[in-house]
Amino acid sequence: MSQSRLSIIKMCLISLAMLLPVSSMADEPPPAFTQDRFEALQQEGAVILVDVWASWCPTCRAQGEVLSDLLSEEDFAEVKKLRLDWDEQKEHAESLDAWRQSTLILYRGENEMARVVAETRESALRNFLEAAL
């Protein structure tokens, strides 16, 4: 193999290696729901998305993919997402009147602005998020 081809291959590998930390950060789950974290964000007047999620739920996974893309947009930069684990945190889900996984609840401060259940369409989730902006 010629020296120039080796140089090109090296440059490509280095470029790919530099992207790995960025892509792994994008796959990090959102902060877990805790009552303290939720109340602190409410006191700040933050826009809060509570994602009632279950690891085994295909609808939750589909929502997660769409929301990940939407929340990376500048328009939704202020949205703070909290993931509420349906299987481990049922008492919190019930306190929010979330009666099943794949429920998304949007707050601005202490006010609930919108709620959807099992919605995965990008356009509908975009409209949902816009309800609190």
From TrEMBL:
The keyword Signal applies. GO terms for molecular function: disulfide oxidoreductase activity. InterPro entries: Thioredoxin-like_sf (IPR036249), Thioredoxin_CS (IPR017937), Thioredoxin_domain (IPR013766). Keywords: Redox-active center, Signal. Residues 14-133 form the Thioredoxin domain. It comes from the Bacteria. Residues 1-26 form the signal peptide. CDD domains: TRX_family. This is Thioredoxin family protein.
